[in-house]
Amino acid sequence: MTSSAREPLGQRPELLRMSRIGKTFGGQVVALNDLSLSVQQGDFISLLGPSGCGKSTALRLIANLIQPTAGSIEWQGGQGEGDLGVVFQEPTLMPWARVKDNVWLPFRLRGQSYSSVADKIERALSLVGLQDFKDAFPRELSGGMKMRVSIARALVTRPRLILMDEPFAALDEITRHKLNNDLLSLRESIGCTVIFVTHSVFESVFLSDRIVVMAASPGRVVGELTVDAPYPRSDAFRTSAEYAASASEASAMLVRAMEHAA
Hints:
Layout: H1 3-6, E1 14-25, E2 29-40, E3 44-48, H2 55-62, E4 70-75, E5 84-87, H3 99-108, H4 114-127, H5 143-155, E6 161-165, H6 173-190, E7 193-198, H7 201-207, E8 210-215, E9 220-226, H8 235-238, H9 241-260
Parallel strand pairs: 3-7, 3-8, 5-6, 6-7
Antiparallel strand pairs: 1-2, 1-4, 8-9
């Protein structure tokens, strides 16, 4: 992992800043209001909150898929090509393309040939444990394997920041736990920053060093919790007193967030 990711929270270089963000849809629906967030290099941030609090909207704004109604989003040093990877709720794979060609997509969109980036594609598939399935089609894969392909596609460019919008929500609990473990191993390997949207208190505590709690109507930040447990984290962390205490605190913050909804 990068050296900045090993520095204590609050002492890492800033990567991205969202300043007083507002987003209104259709002139009437206020999805976000006055949202500010500083993202530091090496952070693993979970956006935790009830449905309708603007978590996914915040990710779409960072990804430049939509534009804010108010406020600004600034990358420190500017955003370069390949700096951002996105993993959506669904794998969003091309069903007619083989696994390796799905992972090639970010490079293909830049006009880069498969042969010129074949080693990077092989490396990404190896990181997610799918090197033996590179010639398979999505229909031949399980749900968890499809999500691994989506993650490989997001990390193949070695982005500085990966956005993940509830990527494991539709998976069974066993697969979800396994992918949580694998995600932390991947982060350790490539040293990226992650912003992860989830409804799950337990998932947010296991994965994150920062949990940003949001409330709805309008969407806004109402609290933040730091999880001090060191990385890497194993299954033993899930049964620790520290994990239970952090989950209890995050649950209480979430209850308060729901009470704050207008």
